[in-house]
Amino acid sequence: KGILCEQEAMGLVQKVLKGEFRVAFKKNLSNDYITGTPDIVLQKEDYVEDIKSSFNLRTFVEAEPNRLYETQAQCYMELTGKKLFRLIYCLVKTPESIITSQKTKWFYKFNCDTENEDYIKVAMQIDHNNNLIDKLPPERRIKVFEFHHDKEYIARLYDKIDKAREFYKTLDLPNGNPIS
Question: Structure pTM?
Answer without folding.
Answer: 0.84
